[in-house]
Amino acid sequence: MLNINGDYCHPCVPEEMQIRKFKQAVKICAVNETTPIPQIYGEEATRIDRSTLSIASLLSQREINDILKFIGEMNVGAGGRTLDVDLKSNFERFRTQMSNAIAVKRVDCKIPNVCIIDLKVEDELRIIGVYAPDSRSWNWHDLSSFIFVNCAIFGDFNVDLENDDKKAESLLEWTHSLNLSPFLLDCPTSLRSDRTIAYAFSNIAKIDIQKFDTNTMSDHYPILSILPKKCKQQVKGKIVKDSNKMCDLAANFYEDLFHKSENIVRSHPYVDAPWIDFDNKDDPIPLVSLDELLLTINDIKKRNLLMHMV
Question: Does the global pTM surpass 0.85?
Answer without folding.
Answer: no
